[in-house]
Structures are given as structure tokens and as C-alpha cells.
Amino acid sequence: MISILIPIYNFDVTDLVQKLVNQCIKAKISFEIICFDDDSKTAIKIKNRPILNMMGVNYVELSENFGRSRIRNKLAKVASFPYLLFLDCDSKVKYASFIKNYVKEIKACNDVVYGGRVYKKGKPRAKTKILHWKYGLEREALPLKKRLKKPYLTFQTNNFLIHSDVMRQFHFDESIDGYGYEDLVFAENLKKQGIPIDHIHNPVEHLDLIPNQKFLDKTETATKNLKILLNKGQVLETRLTSAVRFIDKVGLTTLVKRYLKGKKSSLIDNLLSSDPSLRKLDMYKLLLFLEDR
To answer: Chunked in runs of 10, what are the mean pLDDT values of the chain (293 residues)?
Structure first.
């Protein structure tokens, strides 16, 4: 019935996999759990190797780093069952009915279903990780009602079910280097072909918060990827592209660019602080996008 596919990178998945095995057995379904380690640190590989002894689990350590898109495509190719459930390795299953909720969607013959994500409501103890937590809580952990208004824009790859026939037709774009926007490109391709993305309330909790500086580094990579995609003719609807289109339309691009350049140091100082502003993160992303124009 279902292949659960987990790309692993430097994260202990033993608890996650054990919970999934238990729920699949309880649901009395045919299943397999395939975990590909994307060239993690040796210590993490050693921690994860016991999952090989769990029922229905296939664990493979890759000899090179495939990256976010390529590893998902590889997982899909080796899956045996008609429905594929992709989960990020740094996920925590929140509900005892998690697998059963997706089985209901399979029985309803829904081809693509996104379950959502949540973050802990309490601030992380490490003040250096507050930017990721705040961004995740306000921009990624969207309630079902809000996701349903823009089902393609709010789709993410951390927790979704897809029919193998659809996945064979629409691969993740392996030309996207590093972090950022492979999920949106995938959703846009589905949208162009009229394939609906259904949304349900079946979230997993995102566990792995990264430090503010690393989050800014990923933001820079993602913004570069967005510019490359737009230059290729991909029309992507995001908060950032909407802002760029607006200032271009009203002829304020040069003025805004000059203003943001003057604010760059103060923006970075705020974003690396213990009380970062998402509004200033938006300004920083806009600056990154405009800098080479």
C-alpha cells in the first residue's frame, strides 16, 4: 500500500522510524520504510544503523551527497508501493493516527496530499536559534484553513503523500543547487498540469532548529536559486517575487536598492540577535535579490 521515504542528513531517525513501524503494523497495512543517508557524519550513521533490524525497513548509506532533490527522486525510483509518503528526517510524529490519516486519503484516491508541519510554541533555549523558530512558527506552520486558500504556494516537501504514477511524471528539479524552492517548483509543475494538491491537518513537528547565521546562509542560497529560476522563465508566486514586481512596476527599484544597502549592517545585526524581526528578514531577502541587478 505505502512506501515511506526518508532522506537522512545528520539526524538521528531511530525514534521516528520506530513510531512509523508501530503505526503501520497497528493499521494492518502493507508498507516499507526506505531511508537513504545522504553522506552524514559517521557518528550519525552509527546511531541510525539499528533501524536495519526494524520490520519493513531498508536503510542505505550513500557514498556521496546527493542533495535535496536528487535523493528524493532516487527514493521514489526504488519504492515498491503505489503510494509514497515523503518525510523529512528531522520530523516528530505528533499523532497516534498519523498513518491512519494518510490511509484514509489513499482510500479516497487523492493523488497528492500535504499534511503540514508545526513547531514548538515555546521559544528555544538557545537564543542563537530564535530566527529559524520564529520564521517556522509564523511562515511555515500554517493552519489548514490558511493552507487551503493557496494549496500550491503552501505546499512543502517535509510531509506529503503522492501516488507513484504522479511522481514518475513530475520529478524534483535536480538543477536546483543547495537549499531553496524545489518544493515550490514541484508544486507549480503540478498546478500547470491541473493536478490538485489536497491539504489535511496531519502535521509533523519540525525538530532541527539551526543557528541564525546558518539560517541566513541558507536564505542567501535560496534567494540565488529563486533568481536563477526566474531567469529561466519560471513564474513563481512568493512574497519576495510579489514585492520585486511591485517596486519594478512603480519605478522604485533603484531607490529601494540604495536604501536597503545602507541598512544592510543593521539588518544583519538584528537577524543575528536574540529578538530578530521577520519584517527585517523580508527586507534582507529583498536586498539579496536586488544586489546584482
So the answer is: 97 98 97 97 97 97 92 96 97 97 94 97 92 96 96 96 95 80 91 96 97 95 88 78 91 94 96 96 95 77
Concatenated DSSP letters of 238-290: -HHHHHHHHHHHTT-HHHHHHHHHHHHHHHHHHHTSSS--HHHHHHHHHHHHH
* Listed residues 141, 172, 206: the one ending a domain: 206
**CB-based contacts of 106: which residues, under 8 Å, 6+ apart?**
1, 2, 83, 161
Q: Range of 35's domain? A: 2-116+156-206
What global pTM score does this model have?
A: 0.94
In Å, how far are 25, 42, 51, 86 from 99, measured between CA atoms?
Answer: 10, 31, 19, 12
Q: Computed from CA positions of residues 155, 143, 246, 132, in that sequence, does the dihedral angle turn out positive or negative?
A: negative
Handedness of CA 154, 159, 162, 167 (dihedral sign): positive
Q: What is the rounded CA–CA span in Å between residue 187 and residue 49?
A: 33
How many domains is the chain built from?
A: 2
Find where cell 537513504 sits. Answer: 36
Chain position carrying cell 532516487: 74
- Distance, in Å, from the CA atom of 31 to the CA atom of 79, rounded to the nearest integer, reads 10
